[in-house]
Amino acid sequence: MGLPGEFALIARHFRRLAGPAALDLKDDAAVLDPPPGRQLVLAADAMVAGVHFLAEDPPETIGRKLLRVNLSDLAAMGATPLGYLMTTALPPGTSDAWLGRFVDGLAADQAAFGLSVLGGDTVSIPGPMTLSLTILGSVAPGAALRRQGARPGDALWVSGTLGDGALGLRVLQGKLPGDAAGHLARRYRLPEPRLALGSALAGVARATMDVSDGLVQDLGHLCRAGGCGAVLKADSVPLSPAARALVEADPALLPLLLTGGDDYELLFAAPATAEAEILARAAAAGVAVTLIGGFVAGPPEVQVRGPDGAPMTLPAGGWSHF
Amino acid sequence: MGLPGEFALIARHFRRLAGPAALDLKDDAAVLDPPPGRQLVLAADAMVAGVHFLAEDPPETIGRKLLRVNLSDLAAMGATPLGYLMTTALPPGTSDAWLGRFVDGLAADQAAFGLSVLGGDTVSIPGPMTLSLTILGSVAPGAALRRQGARPGDALWVSGTLGDGALGLRVLQGKLPGDAAGHLARRYRLPEPRLALGSALAGVARATMDVSDGLVQDLGHLCRAGGCGAVLKADSVPLSPAARALVEADPALLPLLLTGGDDYELLFAAPATAEAEILARAAAAGVAVTLIGGFVAGPPEVQVRGPDGAPMTLPAGGWSHF
């Protein structure tokens, strides 16, 4: 009796991603020894073709983006990756060649980030390709970074550069100049989860999250969780040279950088006195961090100040599906 | 600043499913203390409207089916449920009322099976509703039931009754007589994960899996994993009164019962000498089990014998997506 199609597909493509706990993807479930003396950290994200990625994106980057978006959630908790489960709903005609490249990308990122697949499911969908990934990580007991905890007077920090992903999407859509091989498009397709920085922030950051739905909207979450307001200085927000060039050519793009989403940088609150400590830890982690504002007493609102110090009004709060 | 739509939706519907480790679904990830001295068991399954459930199914049963399908994977490993993460890709127009009933169903099953939600994601899809669930459970170290291990001479057992789900789907599709309130339709919409039986089989079953893609196809997996063949006696396969009535009226339905899928019963191998022990443990777990054949030396093939003892030829091996 030969293997039916679905199982042959798993054997041909996904088995090479399996770690020891996955039991070669031949059983009903994985069996994993949890790391002794650690807490588990768990998150899940889904991506739909045409919503979260472009159907014509290179297959190699699609699975990697999904994995990295989930790794970014682990980074925001200060956790170390353990493994993941992935379900793929594939439209008719998804080719073997496409799947091979999709899995090649995942294999590269598994090696880069030190984790492997634990299990999953592969089904057919009469609609857009839909991928879902659940990630597992671990932290020392009580060391998980949380969104709650920002206090008035705390400094507001962000890692890396903002807005590249939002601009990169528009480059790929032909709405902005640039090409698919450039920095901005790459940042849209392959976000950089800040795992080393997340681990380094334990004990010094008071509140942390990753920026996925736009800086201003996500800062609102830190405000609500902390029960305080925040002031964001727009001209302090770190931009890549490619983003800066576009904004200098068209200053009307600035709001997009602050609200556009797809950044996957860490946004965090820390005592104002911890500036030197933060800079030293970030340097040791190999990630630039920038002071972009601070938390203030008052209602959980975000005040954005323009280059002249006056309040800026932004057209939209951030990305929402509904 | 008000909550954007996606977060309001999570607050309004999904938060009531959250257990303590879920941090009220307000953080980037859940933080879970793994049960001390246990191994983790992990599985994931996806369901697509029109493929795995009917878009017109009652919202209460759709989430419960997804949860139960995953719980069935835990049962097949002899594991105890811990929690789950769920991603929902919702088409435009999914109403608040629909979501309320969907979550009502999940809440009922969380109480029935003793677990709660750890996290997830809610996104929009320009296509059919697509749901993905990752389940976590635990087992005593080394006690997980595996698919490998069946040996020639072992008895072949199955729990409950077979074919109800496949017949129930056809009742709901109007292809067979019956109604949506009947036993068969209910078995299609709400499979019964055999968790108590799975736990009870540790130490006596040599190989175990759950029947999800059809009895004959899934028995083939046990054969390949064990490196032996199997003989299945078609007239020993346990049928519910409703299924038996349909097959007596139309004997041509028998192959469907053996290959149709959606059973979620446990299929297992055990030493022939363990018959009394198996029956006692199953009785204590409150589940009927039936001896339906045995394993034989030879290639990993399934021989189905009809009521006259002669080989039966079946039209299809089971359900595959590809």
UniProtKB/TrEMBL annotation, chains A, B:
Mg(2+) 5 binds at D213. This is Thiamine-monophosphate kinase. Keywords: ATP-binding, Kinase, Magnesium, Metal-binding, Nucleotide-binding, Thiamine biosynthesis, Transferase. One of its GO terms (biological process) is thiamine diphosphate biosynthetic process. InterPro entries: PurM-like_C_dom, PurM-like_C_sf, PurM-like_N, PurM-like_N_sf, ThiL-like. NCBIfam families: thiL (TIGR01379). GO terms for molecular function: ATP binding; magnesium ion binding; thiamine-phosphate kinase activity. It comes from Siccirubricoccus deserti. The gene is thiL. It is an enzyme of class 2 (transferase).
